[in-house]
Design goal:
Elements lengths: L1 E2 L14 E7 L6 H15 L7 E7 L7 H11 L3 E5 L2 H10 L4 E3 L10 E3 L2 E5 L5 E6 L4 H14 L1
Helix pairs in contact: 1-4
Length: 154
């Protein structure tokens, strides 16, 4: 896997940070931007503790989510957000590991398509241990509350 800036990355790169992982795609019309906004607001509510948190947006649409597109999308929500991509095989392997399902819709005449995908937020502590799973419906203040608890325990 790699960041939108083409830097190779693995879970070990984020040890010492609380990490929120979300699988989605930048052309998503509803769930992805809502979930990213909730995670970004939650991190913002942490104040100075936000420096201890990263949001990882893992694309399930690497064909359209190029490095520049992914970088712009993630950073538009939060300075703590990073776009993550890889080959279709790498993304499938990571998605399988997290039990994330996704499939591509039939392209229209212009080549546009939707991607149906799971919408879970995976939260890991500073040691990389899975702590929580949330959804797009989890309010930012609840996510922030949970993140504060994880940071205090770390």
């Amino acid at each position: 896997m790699q960041t939108a800036d083409h830097q190779r990355v693995s879970a070990s790169h984020y040890l010492g940070k609380v990490v929120l992982v979300y699988f989605g795609y930048t052309h998503c019309p509803d769930v992805c931007p809502l979930t990213m906004a909730h995670m970004a607001r939650a991190v913002q509510l942490l104040g100075p503790k936000a420096k201890n948190v990263r949001i990882l947006f893992v694309t399930v649409d690497p064909h359209r989510d190029t490095g520049p597109v992914l970088r712009a999308y993630a950073s538009a929500f939060s300075p703590e957000a990073r776009g993550i991509t890889g080959s279709p095989q790498q993304i499938k392997a990571l998605a399988t590991r997290y039990h994330v399902a996704y499939s591509y819709g039939k392209p229209d005449e212009a080549g546009n398509y939707t991607v149906t995908h799971s919408a879970a937020i995976y939260v890991f502590d500073e040691q990389g241990h899975g702590e929580l799973i949330g959804t797009e419906a989890t309010p930012p203040d609840q996510i922030a509350h949970d993140l504060k608890q994880i940071i205090r325990l770390g």
